[in-house]
Amino acid sequence: MLELFLEFLRFGALSIGGGFALLSEIKRILVVERAWLPAHVFVDGWSLGQFVPGPNMLCMAFYGFQIHGIFGAMLAWLGMFAPGIISSIAAAKAWQQIKDALWAKTFRATLLPIGFGFGAGGVYTLAKVSLSSLLAVVLVLVLAALLQSKRFNPMTVVFLGGLIGIITHFWL
Amino acid sequence: MNISTLEIFKAFLLIGATSFGGGGSAHVQYHLVERLKWLSLEEYLECYSMVQTLPGPTFSNLCTHSAARLKGWRGGIAAVLGVNLPGFLMILTLAALYSSLTIQPSWLVGFLKGVAIAAVAISIIALARVAPAAMRAKFSWLLAAAAFIANAILHINILLVLIVLVPIGMTLEWRNHA
């Protein structure tokens, strides 16, 4: 159990900029080096993780469960998420101290367009995976227009998208 | 603004229960900036950039970091628990049923494709709404384009991108005000 926790803690501490970048390394450790999971279970866990709402790294709880039941799931989650939780809170504390310094104002102004560029990169990556047909492209434009009109909020649009997906799944 | 830890937990529980299909940060932007008005667009975008440099899942870190700015470590813990709880319970249920899950019904495949498409639409609109706050100087578009290309096209490590772009951006920003 301790080994399981420490291994996931290492994943959590090494995955700077998100867990996705480390995914092939995580697979190598769990499937090959430790041989805790068969490869098809690793792949299935990733797909099931995409099905649930919230962070996509929740698939780590699935892997922990397959290795060591419910406690395995909790330890795997804690290991993966704890480094981020601690550093996010520490960064917020440090921010309160420095945010009004002159250099910090320049730093803040610089972060805005760079963050926008990263955000655009995230949308591009999502779109490349999801927009596999003409109907999908049309659906994105329609849903975006509904959101922009402010008649719908993101929560309604997610479920509307899911509903349309169920009805039209043969063509998407 | 006096926000209780319970209110933070409830807000992030709602985000955790409804952010299907990826693009979770757009949900954080909608709830914290538009619906609850706890953060300005600029503050949200600062949080978003900041968490790219931290270890661990970025969406979860965005929730923890923005809530910790609002209400210290208690807020951060409340947010990360709230945003993870619904999905954690669902994935545990799926993990327990896993051995008996052999077929994927086609309506479920359709649902997953549909929510992933909705996530793209939500993210595009979220991005369009932060654009005016992010792009205030002439050189802003250059920095944004460089970050986009380095990150999404060339797949360069995000820390390296920041180490190069932040000093350039700060120099341009400095001269702009001097």
DSSP summary, beta strand count of chain A: 0
Give the termini separation of chain A. 43 Å
H-E string of chain A: HHHHHHH
Q: Helix- and strand-based class of chain A?
A: mainly alpha
Separate helix tally of chain B: 7
Q: What characterizes the major β-sheet of chain B?
A: none
- Amount of helix of chain A: over 70%
Q: Which pair of chains forms the biggest interface, and how many residues does each contribute?
A: A-B, 95 and 106 residues
- Mean model confidence by pLDDT of chain B: 91
Strand content of chain B: under 5%
Task: Summarize the topology.
The complex is a heterodimer of chains A (172) and B (178).
Chain A (H helix, E strand, L loop, with lengths): L1 H13 L8 H11 L5 H13 L7 H40 L3 H29 L3 H15 L5 H14 L5
Chain B lengths: L4 H14 L5 H12 L5 H11 L6 H40 L8 H29 L5 H14 L4 H20 L1
Helix pairs in contact in B: 1-4, 2-5, 3-4, 6-7
Summarize the structure.
The complex is a heterodimer of chains A (172) and B (178). With 172 residues, chain A is an all-alpha fold.
Written description of the protein model:
The complex is a heterodimer of chains A (about 170) and B (about 180). Chain A has a domain at about 1-100. In chain A, about 80% of the residues lie in helices and about 0% in strands. Chain A has seven helices and no strands. In chain A, helix 6 packs antiparallel against helix 7. Chain B has about 180 residues and is mainly alpha-helical. Chain B has a domain at about 5-105. Chain B is about 80% helix and about 0% strand. In chain B, helix 3 packs across helix 4 and helix 6 packs antiparallel against helix 7 (about 160-175). The longest helix of chain B is centred in the middle third of the chain and has 40 residues, at about 60-95. The model of chain B has no long low-confidence stretch (mean pLDDT about 90). At the A-B interface, helix 1, helix 3, helix 4, helix 5 and helix 6 of A face helix 1, helix 2, helix 3, helix 4 and helix 5 of B.
